TrEMBL record, chains A, B, C, D:
The keyword Endoplasmic reticulum does not apply. Keywords: Gluconate utilization, Oxidoreductase. Residues 162-295 form the 6-phosphogluconate dehydrogenase C-terminal domain. This is 6-phosphogluconate dehydrogenase, NAD(+)-dependent, decarboxylating. Its EC number is 1.1.1.343. Belongs to the 6-phosphogluconate dehydrogenase family. It comes from Gordonia insulae.
Length: 308, 308, 308, 308
């Protein structure tokens, strides 16, 4: 079948390749002429036979909303738009309604797998109507990993469910990465462990904690032993924040995911933590720091009777 | 080669099978005559040609320490004992010294993989001298998964390092399981998600969060949809506690692992949480709970001006 | 001066008393005729000389928004409305604009102190223009505790700042209460401590942790030793949720406040924690639970080699 | 009565003053001749009439244990030693036994109040026998704040209970300080709040969160607005660590106290957080960072479809 694909960044370009390799025809549009198949979004639409399926793979928020608005003008009743980006799930219903008013279908589809999806296939989480999902199934089958369809693809629910599932996926990912991070840090801190990288590598097979993320961690350590080139400054994509907000909305205790999120916040405090400055200031207020013990030697704060 | 194996519980029996299938001869001892190959520990020792290798696979703490003491009496200089149980790493040096005084070698070896290790092989983390590890290597090779040795086996450092690595492994495992648990709970709480099990299953392939634990979670949900048969009462093996204690000793922030540990503690509070009773009592002290709004309807605590 | 007061629940009635005792005239309205000074909101407005000051003390959300809408119709240019309830700060600007369009001023004023405020005075946090705050100052002075004005009253910023400050106050309160709760629980758990209530009472004077909340905790324990009558089921007013949401919006690590919030969520899970059910189910999947040690006694899960 | 006082650091010197002001005679010993009343510990003992009471106020650990050992040699049956330092409670029983073998009594007494105790009195938590506590009561009464004895003093239980209570006190203190710290940080982050110091000061009276620590926080902010002179590097006295370790031992969920402790650990990671470096490295492994949106502008990682 044919697929219109908007956004040929790293993810979009890889997905185009994978869909083409499955035997489908892709008309890709990107504002950068050097990577685009057509000069304009309108040309992309004109290059597809109705009923069309158009996959939007652009940044979430305004770019995606803007693209959907343009498509609502350009497409025809019976066409179908799939938002494969990391949109917040609350964007999906408005987008679906905007398109639905023109008779155009909408699917939100969370996509996981990163740059590895080109070769391994992408994990897909779709939200939308049964009919729309059935129409897009050949594309989903091209993108998802080979093997059983239910491993790597889910029709998670109505419009919004796909991005919701992807959001939770990313929240879980925060927790998993930080759990490995804490384990890595503890192994590094313990002198008994003379081979940290080897220990993590051993964990990749046979153990209970084996996972793809762990394999990537070993790969990263092999490329840069001790992470000497890596900053601990960590950004966040927004999905971890949304996950904790949803946990709050649903009264779900999310101690692990929020701890992972807050650790990222802390990593960005270039001027130090105001909270800890307050703690330091408090200790200065009530503490008496210099004491001398009975042997006459000067004594640090540990064991200082005055430090509460 | 020959292996003496003390402890033929679920793990020990499976390991015996796997070692035998690799072509080695196992003499197994267990206090339960119906499963033991020999009537006594002394008979096990007599049944092995020197220099002997004896694998101890009994519960940690007193049972393991007791077995090591018995072996120190029964074995000869040049023999080797491997503790494959979940001993605390601080037990290893005393055990090694007790045996070393008799000229007997010692390796601590963390074993991961659970009941699945029989078929998949076990992830192994060994601590000890190079010579001792080299001698035991044929047994490690029999137990670990097929493929590259470094995937599934590590000589992590001197005596103690194997159990230390296993302890951290289990701490990480706490974090991973709880991250999935929080994601599962949030998916269950959101009405948009009409196929929770399918969503988790889709995550098992292609996605960033794919792992063996996730596959087990899907398997468990398929066996018992909604976990209707499962209590949230969760015990702990002690290794999570040790991991957090070690994090404290090494000044490693372990927010994720400790959150997972504390959640297990909370699940066991049959009489309710004393901390939350104190919070409730405090709110009663300063709160004025019943207020009426301007429409005359009775008002719950949300929005009560008096409830700080 | 005169004050119109809408809402004569527990808080509103106490505040009326306190304002009257300071020599002001209060016209109170409540939909319950038995406690109301006037039969209707319109009568309350008619009973006040312009320019009027009306304090709204009703539940947050729709009740407050509805009351503000009614007052926008009934009041005149130059009048002033103060929202003293626990409104979310994001409600304040719309309310201020609705009133401002009619020439009516608006102040949001967070009020803390609970039922004790009648005697002790209330801690007040106001948001609004300098002029509006100056006009209402006699009322604020009547409500706040005696002594220095800056202890117990702040003009925290423009419209919204008062409720924002109150929201953060309540978030901090969550953290404080839970810190005491954890300390209380640990004292109860330790057999060495034979006088838990006495220990907490001793802390109320001289120590670093002394506070009003601690005094209330001792009072509560004296009324109900062991909290035998108290459930650990703990609701939340919404302000803790908002605080954590704001922390997320501002990238502020809020580990302590969120931990206190999540503990309340957990206390309400009557069917058990789905996350912990998932953890239990996972452990069943990979664990081999029954093992026997070398002494033949049956062994629980602690120390079970098979339990990762 | 007479009191021997070992250790005339900031705390000890203040306590000498307070005990003297209550009419007692103090013979103080300190290894620094310029502050000591007597040239040696033996001279201090000789300067007291039997039965003696000796208060030890030196750093915990070896200095305290060493002082107790010396006193065991110098004192006589019927004398009494009080350890007022921040010893770990597990040191108390060995110290008590060492002294008890010579017929000398022992009390462990947690002392809180910092440098303010000189004027306000100290909060005291004592562990020991009824007889020993009764003998030392005049000294406790001199040190504790005026007013009701039960406010500021508790006989918490047998030997060990005093330091245990003090340890929990300090753990609670960690949680309280960090709760205020988080609130302070959030107030600073929100542009609506134009008077952070004023807001905190307003909280000191009338509100639910009022406390002595809050008063100190306001004082600190007034001395150093914005904490411009304060580092967020925060040490810890060891008591927070012990509290969390005890929580683990007693299966008490201590999410709040441990979060406060771990935040201090994080503040000391001069080379950055290894855990977050691992997280960063992982994101590099699977992420595709540079994408372009349909408007041609370059896009950061937020909203990048490729960033899981």
């Amino acid at each position: 079948m044919q697929l219109g694909l908007v956004g040929l960044g790293k993810m979009g370009a890889n997905m185009r390749t994978r869909v083409q390799e499955a035997g489908h025809q892709v008309v890709g549009y990107d504002p950068r002429p050097e990577v685009s198949d057509v000069p304009s979004l309108a040309d992309m639409v004109r290059g597809l036979e109705a009923p069309r399926v158009v996959w939007v793979m652009v940044p979430s928020g305004d770019p995606t909303r803007g693209t959907v608005k343009q498509l609502a003008e350009l497409l025809e009743p019976g066409d179908l738009v799939i938002d494969g980006g990391n949109s917040k799930y609350t964007d999906d219903l408005p987008n679906a309604q905007l398109l639905g008013d023109k008779g155009i279908g909408f699917i939100d589809c969370g996509v996981s797998g990163g740059v590895w999806g080109l070769r391994n296939g992408y994990g897909l989480m779709a939200g939308g109507s049964d009919d729309d999902v059935a129409r897009a199934m050949p594309i989903f089958d091209a993108l998802r990993p080979p093997g059983e369809r239910a491993d790597g693809f889910v029709h998670a629910g109505p419009v919004g469910a796909g991005h919701y599932a992807k959001m939770v996926h990313n929240g879980v990912e925060y927790g998993l990465m930080h759990a490995y991070g804490e384990g890595y840090e503890l192994l590094c801190a313990e002198p008994l462990i003379t081979d940290v990288e080897g220990t993590l590598r051993a964990w990749t097979t046979g153990t209970v904690v084996r996972s793809w993320l762990l394999e990537l961690l070993v790969r990263a350590l092999q490329e840069d032993p001790g992470f000497s080139e890596i900053s601990d400054y960590t950004t966040d994509s927004g999905e971890g924040r949304w996950t904790v907000e949803e946990a709050i909305r649903h009264s779900v205790p999310a101690n692990v995911i929020s701890a992972a999120l807050f650790a990222r916040f802390a990593s960005r405090q270039d001027q130090g933590s105001p909270a800890l400055k307050a703690v330091s200031a408090l200790r200065n207020q009530f503490g008496g720091h210099a004491v001398t013990d009975t042997t006459g030697r000067s004594v640090g704060e540990t064991g200082t009777p005055a430090a509460d």
